[in-house]
Design brief:
Blueprint (H helix, E strand, L loop, with lengths): L2 E12 L2 E12 L3 E5 L6 H8 L6 E6 L5 E4 L13 H5 L7 H10 L15 H13 L5 E5 L7 H18 L2 E5 L3 H7 L2 E5 L3 E5 L1 H5 L2 H7 L3 H15 L9 H4 L9 E2 L17
Parallel strand pairs: 3-7, 3-8, 5-6, 6-7
Antiparallel strand pairs: 1-2, 1-4, 8-9, 9-10
Helix pairs in contact: 3-4, 6-9
Length: about 280
Amino acid sequence: MTNLVTATNLSVKRGQNILLHEIDLQVRAGEIVTIVGPNGAGKSTLLRTLIGATSFNGTLQLKPGLTIGYVPQKLHLEPSLPLSVRRFLNLPIRQKQKDIHNALEAANATSLIRQQLRDLSGGEFQRVLLARALINKPELLILDEATQGLDHLGADSFYRQIEVVRQTLGCAILMVSHELHVVMAASDRVICLNGHICCEGTPDFVASNPAYQELFGLDSSSALALYRHHHDHNHDHSHSHSHSHIHSHEHEQEHIRNHGHEHSHDHQHPMDSQS
C-alpha cells in the first residue's frame, strides 16, 4: 500500500516549548487514521505541520504530486457578509460548475448551493467546508476537529458522510477527534498523541492500551463494547469496501507500535489549547 505521508523523527518547538517530539508517522492510501489525545497534546500542530503551515525538525516526505483537502477546526466569517454557498466555493478562484456539483454531492450538500452561509446550521456549514475540501479531488483529506460545536447527532451524521467519501473517492482520511464512538466505529488505525506518540494500532488495541487509559481514564471493556455496538448498528449498509480492519483483529499486532507509554503525560502545550 502506497505511503502518502511519511514523517520520521519529526519535532516541533515554539520558543523553549517542545510541542511535538520524535514523531514517526505514516498515512497510507485509502485508510482512515484518527489522532486522539488530551488538550495541549499537539494534535492540531501535527496536522498543520503535515500541510506545511508549521516549521519542524526531522524528515517529512509526501507522495509526489499529493493533493490534500483540509477542513479546519473553525472558519470565522463576517456574519453580515452576503455570501452564498456557490460563491464561497468559487473563492479564491472560479471552479468548474461540474466540480462544485460533484463536491457538494460527495458531501451530501447539493441542496445548499443557493443558501447564504449565514443562514446555514452548524452541520450544514461543516458539509459545505467538506465540499470545499473535496473540490480538487484530494488523495488525502485532513479533518481538524471538524465536528467541534455540533451535537452528537450532527457529529455522527457528518462522520458517516466521511466514510461515504472514503468509499466513493478512495481518499485517505487523517482526522482529529475527541469522540470515542467515532474513533471506534470509523477508523482503521488510531494514534494516541501527547507530545509524542504514546501508542498506535487498531481501535480496540488502543482502547485497551495502558497509555490510552492513563490519558483518558476509560475502562477498556466499556470502550470495546461501545465500539462493537456502534459497528453492529451502523455498518449494515451494503458497499464494496472491506471492513477487514474490524473482523481480522488476529492480525492487528502486525500494524501496532507501542511508543513507551511509561513516559509522563503531565505537560501541556499553550499553542494547542484547542487541540
